[in-house]
Amino acid sequence: MVKKFYSSVEMIQQLVAFDTTSSKTNMHLIDFIQRYLSLHGVESTLIPDPTANKSNLFATIGPEETPGVVLSGHTDVVPVDGQSWETEPFDVIEKNGRLYGRGTSDMKSFIAITLSLVPYFLAQSLKIPIHLAFSYDEEIGCLGAPRMIAQFGKAQVMPLACFVGEPTNMKVVNAHKGVHGFRTTVYGLEQHSSATHKGVNAVQYASRLITYLSDLSNEISNTMSDSQSEFEPPYTTIHVGTIQGGTAQNIIPKECTFSWEYRLMPEEDPEEIYNKFKMFVDTDILPSMRKNFANASVDTIQRTIVPGLRAEKNSFAEELALNIAKDNSTGVVSFGTEAGQFQSAGVPTIICGPGSIEQAHKPNEFIELKQVSECEGFLRKLSEFCCYDKMYDDN
Fold it and tell me: Is 367 inside a domain boundary?
């Protein structure tokens, strides 16, 4: 078999061409990566989801018996449905020093740059291995990474550090908010719309719950904003993302479902907001609903728990990243990543990747070519650091 070599831009073009929207499989992309690694003599392990329709991929370059550095990224992207794209979203278009396409910023470029450098990594005399950890379903709650991280507990050696390549304009980020996501369904009583006194309108009660969340969000922003915090915004946020309910204008709706989340500042109680919501349901909403219908109910399930990334000043991951970046400063971000999951497993973790989060999830998503070049340089320097045993002495 002939080895295949790609420039970073060529590999970005290859990966973006796979439509790995979270609602679809990522197996075509994973198979491509596995074949590419195999051509270069790198074995990889697939860690599928329960349906085997999606998979993580984990591979090691260098000595497997030695603690290494993880390069982590997610393979899924958000939908393009309903967005006004000026180009075909799954074809990379280069224009004015930018690469346009879904996932160019968030975050296939990091994975592509990493893969394009595999031959370079292999040519180094690595004393410290470089682990490739590519996950599924990050965009809908970081669902894939924990199945991969669980494998570390079965291994004899834990990684020294993890670099998550989410877009930070190649700045070193050492903290992010946690994400807790929920789906709430209100069950009322269907009636003709002329008999409002007999029915229980699920949409209207759901609206009261959404209003409560909105009021709670305003209360938090007004009373708990931390002017000293680097986070933007500097407080916990609450957001309602989707709502579905009702069947016809002249039918009192018996069911309404909405999804909501809060993005939690570090060190705050992750249960406090949910407990307040639950109390409002139990003391205000349900008693009112059950005046007309004893079996009315409100069911809430938690769909997402993404732990926040806590700042660990002078951790090995942070010091190594700052050394490579020739920088003395770190930042924080409000979006969630798998970084907190790696950290919770005992792996020192930071976020550092090419592109801007300002371009993520938008039509006409792009990455600057200079960001691609900067990431290449960063990863080359990382591999050079991995050639020296003294890394252990610094840890």
Answer: yes
